[in-house]
Amino acid sequence: MKKYFLFLFCVFNLSLYSQEKSNAYSAVTAFFAAFHAKDSLGMQAVFHPKARLLRSGVKENQPIVVENNLEKFIRAVATRPATPTWEERLGQPIVQQDQNLATVWVPFRFYLNEQLSHCGHNSFTLTWDGSSWLILSLIDTVAKNCN
Prior knowledge:
The structure is a single chain. Strands 1, 2, 3, 4, 5, 6 and 7 form a seven-stranded mixed beta sheet that branches. The longest helix has 20 residues, at about 1-20. The N and C termini lie far apart (about 65 Å). The protein is globular and about 40 Å long. It contains four helices and seven strands. It is about 35% helix and about 45% strand. The chain has helices at about 1-20, 25-35, 40-45, 70-80; strands at about 45-60, 60-70, 85-90, 95-100, 100-110, 115-130, 135-140. It has about 150 residues and is of the alpha+beta class.
């Protein structure tokens, strides 16, 4: 009987581990929940210690990639004034995963005081650290023409 309960316990824990590991998008939703709540600790908790924050765009008709300081970004989000209100609305994500690596591609629309400010796409690279998914990189695009 002991062996039976031990077996069930192991299967149950393995099942929970598999369910959690299969949900890479949970780190993205946790990031945006913390982002909207201005929760710096919540945002920091979902980023890998070596995480990078980037923006892909065009300057003077040339493609560019700009790296931003993640700590400054989190501080700016957490200390922003109450107005204007910020809201990033996400579209349908595309999640791909293999072992401890996952990517999330998700369109977004960004609103200031309920007015559409800009839109684009977020691309997240995530890694599994043995207990949770962590964002290793976040790169986005920005457009003002949001049809």
